[in-house]
Amino acid sequence: MKKTITLLVMLFVSALQAQELESLLLSGNDASKLTENYMNPLMKGLLYSMNGGWYTTAKTHKKFGFDITVSANASFIPSSSQNFNFSPADYEFLTTANGETSLPTVMSENSSETTINVSIPIDGTNTFKVGSFQMPGGITEDLPINAAPAPMIQVGLGLPTRTDVKLRFVPKLSFDDDVEASLIGVGLQHDITQYLGPIDKLPLSVSVLAAFTRLKATYAINDDSLTDNVSIQNGEAEFTMNAFTIQALGSLDFKIITLYGGFGYNQGKSEVNLKGDYNLSYEVQDSSGNTISTVNETVSNPVNLDFEANGIRTTLGARLNLGPIKIFGDYTFQKFNTLSAGIAVSIR
């Protein structure tokens, strides 16, 4: 199962790594805004995915009962988030070569690149630093579905107070000597059916859940292209995501099948950092467009971005009970709707 999770993470990160985000640094002061618009749906989608799959029933374990769950969550990218509006008025130095006003985001089904022209005035002169780069397209052609995935392993343990403590993790994965990813989370689910009198005798269970997940991934940015006017030393992209959810849960627990659902709130924050030293090459042109010379400049740790995602969530799901083996799937309605599915071994 670890191999399956590794392959999924590797497929996703490798597709992202191929986008050569370092070329956007030629945008100068516009690089952060352009990177933010391009990466926005991915970072939000991952936050929504990370809050999925915490439960398959509202019923808590008996004392020292436990479960081991392997699941995958996938937040689907809305069509409205597959492109972003590009207006030169929003940027200081950028125009598209062919006048495009709608560009694909990283999670677009459109993988075509767009040529971006850069013209940065040089202070105190009537000259400009001039260059161009290829704005990358979307990566979803390389993915099984157009969704942000978050696979994980989770362990739940019953405490004496009809409370489950849940720990989830993906152990630190490394591959190709370039990519590392890890995930850890903790949750508490407390049964409140015990306080509701006769309802405690019915197959209905009610509980509350609070949970937190942290994901960190890094990949090396290698200097693979000799024609993009960007050379790299110690380049690295770092992604850090923290997601929190609080929910009220309900379930009907029968011998063969469990029907469950939840209603609550998500909150998440993520960071994207491009680290290292990047040497950028430009032509120097006068106001008539004549090339005078070339110039090189180096920027260090050039991009630091924050993303947030929050809102109401509603989950509906079902679980097939085959003795200690549980097979489940659920769907969450939220800003980025999310599908969760997996298998568990549960000893009550």
Fold and architecture overview:
By secondary structure, the protein is mainly beta. The protein has one domain: Lipocalin (Beta Barrel), CATH 2.40.128. 10% of the residues lie in helices and 57% in strands. It is built from two helices and 16 strands. The strands form two sheets. Strands 1-7-8-9-10-11-12-14-15-16 form a ten-stranded antiparallel beta barrel. It is elongated. Pfam families: DUF6588. InterPro entries: DUF6588. It comes from Kordia aestuariivivens. This is Outer membrane beta-barrel protein.
Quickly list its features.
single chain, 348 residues, mainly beta, Lipocalin, 10-stranded antiparallel β-barrel, two-stranded antiparallel sheet, 10% helix, 57% strand, disordered N terminus
Write the layout of secondary structure elements.
Blueprint: H1 2-17, H2 31-50, E1 66-76, E2 83-85, E3 94-96, E4 102-104, E5 114-121, E6 127-135, E7 147-159, E8 163-175, E9 179-191, E10 204-221, E11 230-253, E12 257-286, E13 291-300, E14 303-322, E15 325-333, E16 338-347
Antiparallel strand pairs: 1-7, 1-16, 2-4, 3-5, 5-6, 6-12, 7-8, 8-9, 9-10, 10-11, 11-12, 12-13, 12-14, 14-15, 15-16
Keywords: Signal
Protein name: Outer membrane beta-barrel protein
Signal peptide: 1-18
Measured on Cα atoms, how large is the radius of gyration?
24 Å
Record field, number of beta strands: 16
**CATH second-level architecture:** Beta Barrel
- Decide which structural class fits the backbone: mainly beta
Mean pLDDT: 89
CATH topology description: Lipocalin
Element order: H for helix, E for strand: HHEEEEEEEEEEEEEEEE
Reading side by side through the largest sheet, how are the strands ordered? 1-7-8-9-10-11-12-14-15-16
Report the sheet-strand fraction: over 45%
**Helix count, DSSP H or I runs of 4 or more residues:** 2
Main sheet characteristics: 10 strands, antiparallel, barrel
Which percent range fits the helix content?
10-25%
Tell me, briefly, the overall form: elongated
Low-confidence parts, pLDDT < 50 over ≥5 residues? 1-5
The N- to C-terminal Cα distance equals 23 Å
